[in-house]
Amino acid sequence: MIRKLVERGALAALALAALAVPGMAAADLENDYPTEARVDYVFGCMAANGQTRESLQRCSCSLDALASILTYDIYVQASTILSMRQGVGQRANEFKSTKIFDDKVADLRRAQAEAEIRCFRG
Question: What range does the record give for the signal peptide (predicted)?
Answer without folding.
Answer: 1-25
